[in-house]
Amino acid sequence: MAGFSYEAKDAKAKTKKGVIEADNARHARALLREKGLFPLRVKEAAESSQREGFNFTFGNPMRGSKLALFTRQLATLVDSAMPIDEALATVAAQSEGNATKQLILQVRSKLVEGHTLASALAQFPNSFDTLYRSLVRAGEASGLLGEVLEELAVHLEDNLDTQQKVMGALAYPIILLVLSVGIVTYLMTAVVPEIVSVFDRSGQALPKLTEVVIAMSDYLLNYGAITGVVLLIIAVGLARWLKTDAVRPSWHQFILRIPIAGTLVRTLEASRYASTLSILVGAGVNLIDALRICTEVLSNEVMKSANQAVVEKVTSGSSLFKALDDSKQFPLLLVHMVGSGERSGELAQMLKRASIHQNRELNGKIQTAVTVLEPLMILIMGAFVLVIVLAVLMPMLEMNNMVKL
């Protein structure tokens, strides 16, 4: 059976949309009529959703929390000895959203046609990456698919948790930044001009600081909108330029050298690396293949290049410990735990311990970064407001002194 997306009218002439499982389009229409629906359009899900170049680029139905939930549900059902095709049908029935349901039914359709689960998932590379497919393939080959899916679900949930912590840590500083810009803009465009009119009528000489603030206020009133648009265009252009192949490695190297941000990025990358390698090696994936897959998990170009060098050295016969140590890019504790794992023959277990340690260290560094960033943002906002207040008060104090004299 395959999944068919449909549009139909019910007895009250209301339009209904959804997904139905059937042998073919004619069978799907017959099933809809049995439900009291008049089919207007019936199309195989593959025809509409498999155009991944369009649909999945703008809205991948299987990413983040949805992928983690799908994997967790599938792992639970497979562990309970349910056949994979039935497990997929059950997960599809419980899924929210037509796009997600269609995707799962398409995977099931490929499975029923005779594909393995890994090869069925390979038909949708934008939704299921190389790591995901490789682990499923290893699980199918070893007969431990349920256990591998369980490990994969934990891995995805941990990654999601880390992302949420990073975003949560950045949320408050970003809110402070927006508030700061809003307050300063309001003071410069609404408050300062009102006070300037008073100073103009008095005809007194103004302090240098006040003149500078007034000049900035006039500029914002006259050219603020244009400047904002220009800065936005520059920011977008700069962001795209920094992502080009020629510039990205140098930019990523610069990020790693920034005191707090660099340490945070390196720890985050090391955590992903250790966690991914642990799962792959534990699932029985060849070490060299596992290392190659880990390259896709890393987002920093410097760390990627370092891992590619590690792959080449391990392929040439070097130990993983020696290759990682020579790269000088991975945390020393991770490197030495890998060495210990190689010597004891428990590499997967040591990598898992290293991953747990890196996650703890990452949480600590995130907390440290937030602790430093929050008061820094408040100080910067306070400094801007203080300058504006001083620029307004200084002429007023001079006027009071003149009146007393």
CATH topology of the largest domain: Receptor-associated Protein
Q: Tell me the count of domains.
A: 3
Output the number of helix runs: 17
Which class best fits the helix and strand makeup?
mainly alpha
Helix share, percent: over 70%
Give the termini distance in whole angstroms. Answer: 96 Å
Instruction: Give me the strand/helix succession.
Output: EEHEHHHHHHHHHHHHHHHH
**CATH homologous superfamily descriptor of the largest domain:** Type II secretion system (T2SS), domain F
The overall pLDDT average reads 83
Strand content: 5-15%
What is the spatial order of strands in the main beta sheet?
A: 2-1-3
Describe this structure in words.
- 32% of the residues are buried.
- Helix 9 packs antiparallel against helix 12 and helix 12 runs antiparallel to helix 17 (347-404).
- The protein folds into three domains: 2-49; 61-156, Receptor-associated Protein (Up-down Bundle), CATH 1.20.81; 175-405, Type II secretion system (T2SS), domain F (Receptor-associated Protein, Up-down Bundle), CATH 1.20.81.30.
- The protein has helices at 25-34, 45-49, 55-59, 65-79, 84-94, 98-112, 117-121, 130-142, 145-202, 208-242, 248-257, 259-282, 287-297, 301-315, 320-327, 332-344, 347-404, and strands spanning 2-9, 15-22, 38-44.
- The chain has a three-stranded antiparallel β-sheet with strand order 2-1-3.
- The chain has 405 residues and is mostly helical.
